[in-house]
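Hello again, I could really use a second opinion on something today. For a while now I've been wondering how a particular protein folds. Please have a think about how the structure follows from the sequence. Here's the protein in full, and shout if anything looks odd to you:

***
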Amino acid sequence: MELGEIVVEARGIEKFFGSNHVLRGVDLEVRQHETVMLIGRSGSGKTTMLRCLNFLEEPTVGTVRIGDISAKADPLHARSRKHREELRNLRLQAGMVFQDFNLFPHMTVLENCIEAPTRVKGVPKAEAIATAEKYLAKVQLSEKRDEHPARLSGGQKQRVAIARALCMEPKVLMFDEPTSALDPELVGEVLTVMTELAHEGSTMIVVSHEMQFCREAADRVVFMEGGVVVEQGPPDQVLTNPKEEATKHFLRRFLTPDQHAVIEAMAEA
């Protein structure tokens, strides 16, 4: 699917946690219908970057635009009414899927899906229910609409979380390690839903180590190391023929012995 206009634009994102300089002037653009995957070792800054995009973490410096809504990092005035309103409007543009689901345990699946549209966006309940039923069908969980999360498997919970994010009809979907809390046999059902969304043209930013999903669904891979973007490009280029030594070193952990041998042979040649 042809990519559209820039939907997400981040400029000069810096983030300090005390003296720890986690992000060091990161720029990122994501276009409509594009799936961008952030990869890197633990501590590289990829999850912090994702959380700074919707200000779940307030950047120390930088600006973010999602759709027509912009917000500038302003830690000194983070609790001002004006800044809180800016962030509220920005977050309405982004649907977030967390690694640990974050479903409300006292609510049914359907209630989880309609809570934010009705309370935050003011969508009429009947309309919210119709939208929720549409997206629960998309993630193949229509029959679970009246169940509580405790009665669902981990994979089902994460699919509900995806449906819940879709119910807000955001400009972009953000996934923070969506399969890391799942048993291996449940990972596939979540990745199948995500792959379908990518192929249907959803705009997505995904933090994950699922390289098969990256090859099948991502339009662009962004490799981060030490709080900066080291390399980015199409999956075929970054995963198969990375230019930077840091990228090559990171990707070696995901290679089969035969792939290792090919890379060594190429290096010797």
